Known about the structure:
Helix content: 25-40%
CATH architecture of the largest domain: 3-Layer(aba) Sandwich
Largest sheet: 9 strands, mixed
Bound molecules: ligand BES, manganese (II) ion, zinc ion
Number of helices: 16
Amino acid sequence: MEFSVKTGHPEKQRTNCIIAGVFETRRLTTIAERLDKASDGHINNLLRKGDLEGKAGQVLLLHHVPNIPCDRVVLVGCGRERELKDKEFRDIIKKAIQAVIQTNAIEAVCFLTELNVKSRDIRWKIKQAIEITSEILYTFDTFKSKKDKERRALRRLIFTVPTRRDLPNGERAVLEGQAIANSITLAKNLGNLPPNICTPIYLAKEAENLALEFESISAAILDENDIAALKMGAFLAVAKGSQFPPRLITLEYRGCKEHTRTISSTKVRTKDGVHPQTIQPIVLVGKGITFDTGGNSLKTPAGMIGMKYDMCGAAAVLAAIRAAATLELPLNIVGVIPTAENMPGNQATRPEDIVTSMAGITIEILNTDAEGRLILCDALTYCERFDPDVVIDIATLTGACIAALGHHTSGLFSNHNTLANDLFNAGITSGDRCWQMPLWDEYQDALNSNFADIANIGSPPDGGAILAASFLSHFTKRYHWAHLDVAGTACRGTGRDRGATGRPVPLIIQYLLDRCSKITK
Ligand code: BES
Ligand code: MN
Ligand code: ZN
């Protein structure tokens, strides 16, 4: 799909389809008004006959509009103008694009980006429209021997901007929108792959491919011996039961040229005049459990379905770094991905085993199904060597987070208020929202162990999402840290109709973009 921007009047477009809005009740937008004038009142005549009220999401497909050179007009109900906010705009775009796809139009010109959405600019509207279109067109049929031969004509979608002065802004929005949409697609594809194919080594290969594709990205892959040499006892305990060996993936994106450090050395040189925040990297950590059986604390058959998505944190990190490199963001970003498979068996960790983490903290593993925090705690200790500005981990960590927030909102935990607020705001802007939950000291008692420094599950288990985050907080004391629990948001549906959503890629990229605009200010 090709996206672009232009200026122009609706009544002059020579194209297969134009998209224009109508407010409730039968009130024309400026664009629809122009079409009406040019067609001697044709649009208003139709509305008067009652074919379109203008309720949000209604659509009416018109052919042969008098004096209008385009083949079709899709009229979309936009609801009440004053109530047009983020969600309404997204719904309107979705309905409009779905209607266009039903037709045979190869090219469409969309005027809906000229609708007023409270406190949103043209850039936001174009980016959202591209993400939504890409979401509608997404299919994953790699493993179908007969591909769905549903023929789609639509090839080009053109968004209009009000004036020529808006063109550069619009073009940047198209670039960003496409980079975000492509990243989301990458995250979805990785998530949807079956766990016999998407193994830790497969994810490592994916990271190496990014490094080959982009000059600005380098990758380092550590194997089980390297992981043992780093004394990552918690990480290794999770990997032991699987025939697939674990990997610790490090990706480094260098978008701020003054940053002279590489993965192997630890010195940072700050050049005069460069904001130190642009030097210290943003570190993204992603949980990469390629399948979670629960290990010897085995899940039920129903509870195991969907556990191929337990690497969606890892996928989000790969995808976000890809977007940063595509957009050449002036930031330094490090991605750290501990990846393993959680299997039961006679080689696997037992409940009541005690392991020593890289940080030296001993952990009594009382439930092998609480494995995410075990691989993450060592990865989080490893992050210290990057002298991070902030560390953000992304993990499908707890069923309890789904119980608390459902499937619309990711759980947010942080030891730093500014970071938490920045992520919250990036969620609002992108529509990929998160909500902060507490990390107060009172919760720590539940993690006490009789025999080791801490236990890997809580007793009592209530507030499980908070307890998991509290566990991680032991390993993040040396830097500003946030944790996103995406168990409820990284995939949708249940059982057989589950599918990856690509979340929280939009949120992370928005956070990165916000960081960039802070530097230039
Ligand atoms: N990967 C799961 C969390 C999960 C559950 C994600 C459901 C998506 C849907 C995680 O490793 C897990 O098993 N967590 C346990 C923790 C418990 C044993 C303390 C859980 O949530 O039940
Ligand atoms: Mn588990
Ligand atoms: Zn898991």
